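Posting here for the record, re: heme C.
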Amino acid sequence: MRLRRLSALVLALAAPPMAVAALVACKPASTSPSSGDAAAGDAASDASALNTLDGAALYGSLCAICHGADATGYKADNAPSLVNPTFLESVTDDQLRRSITDGRPGTSMAAYGAIRGGPLKPDAVNKVVGWIRSHGSKPISLPPRGTGDAKRGAQLYADSCERCHGTAKVRGNAVHLANPRFLEVASDEFLGWAIAKGRPGTPMEAWQGKLTDGQIDDVIAYVRAFNKPPPVELLPAPTGKEPLVINPHGQAPNFKPRSTPCPKTANQPDAAPCIPDERFVSVEQVKEALDQKRKIIIIDARPPSDWMRVHIPGAVSIPYHDTKRLEEIPNDGTWVIAYCACPHHLSGDVVDLLRKRGIKHASILDEGILEWHRRGYPVVAAPGVEAPPKEGYGLVPPSPAH
Ligand code: HEC
Ligand code: HEC
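Prediction output follows.
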């Protein structure tokens, strides 16, 4: 935790305007959802209806919660801008399509493509790509790159890039360049353009002039050399028939939920009003309840593609974009805990829905599944899926609540 906050601070010192957004990126779910995010929410609760929506509505119901209603990013989880001019002029439609379909496993960017267990058919992915593209230019032709030296690049990377982008293993506050799904789709020319031109209006400065062309090639060579673990096999898709209640004959858990202090909003005028309430249960308490065989329902609020990588044993997949199964949740005092990766956003939406239905004992797993996994608590995982690193910033963005 301390390191996490530290790396947020480093970013804060390096880049004041965006850092404010980064620090509040994972704001507590009590401040969400805003009405804009919830738009098209009803259609979104049915996966097949979802696919009939147009690009704007798809984006609004699935993506705005993290990338922001206007797609400029940083609404949650340090999700990057999708409409920055230097991004749109260098990213190809195919690269966008594959980024959305395959996601960035190990970060909160889930795989949204139906072939990966996500909710979107190829046609729907194309509609979202079209909507993103409508915010800027088509790809321009990018200058070719030379052959760099990864060894020289390593030093440059450590000096100039690591504080934001993290290491091969550990994500920083900015896009994880070592993610195999990123390296798969990002060409050297795309990388070179981002490094040379930066991303105007974000902490990503233009390195042209500060690094020579040769040095940029060296950094690219180093980034390319990040380990590429083979893509993991997935668990079978959820059937929707998994039993809801864990330990149906057990006693009720003794949860002591906590409320979250409201984040300062002075620097963030568009922050939703803060409503303190007691809706967070810690990972320790939930682990203890499972150990003691208490009666509980655990909901995985992420897209099913993430559940198919790793989930808490007994957790049912009820994704934020397809919440029909919430109707089956008994309103008889049974405790319901929802989690996501963020750790508060998608689960916060689901808990809001449950509370609207009059279910009072509904809370959010405070630190989210990545922290649960990091601690070595039990999980059901696909082969090859490893726990996030124990040290460092890890995969969870900083939260003012911690
Ligand atoms: C729970 C938060 C969350 C949601 C919801 C989400 N994303 Fe993301 N997205 C992220 C994060 C975080 C990253 C950066 C991942 C990394 O570090 O590699 C990302 C990365 C991306 C990228 C790659 C950008 C780049 O610079 O390479 C694209 C494209 C993208 N998201 C599109 C979408 C679309 C379209 C949707 C909706 C269908 C969506 N995302 C939903 C969090 C989210
Ligand atoms: C002060 C923090 C910071 C530093 C230092 C930094 N970056 Fe970035 N970088 C970012 C952020 C934030 C983004 C995403 C901006 C956005 O939302 O469009 C980014 C984006 C990128 C992208 C584009 C990723 C994508 O999919 O769009 C590349 C490539 C990149 N940086 C490489 C580098 C390299 C190489 C260095 C070192 C020479 C570096 N960055 C230094 C913060 C930083």
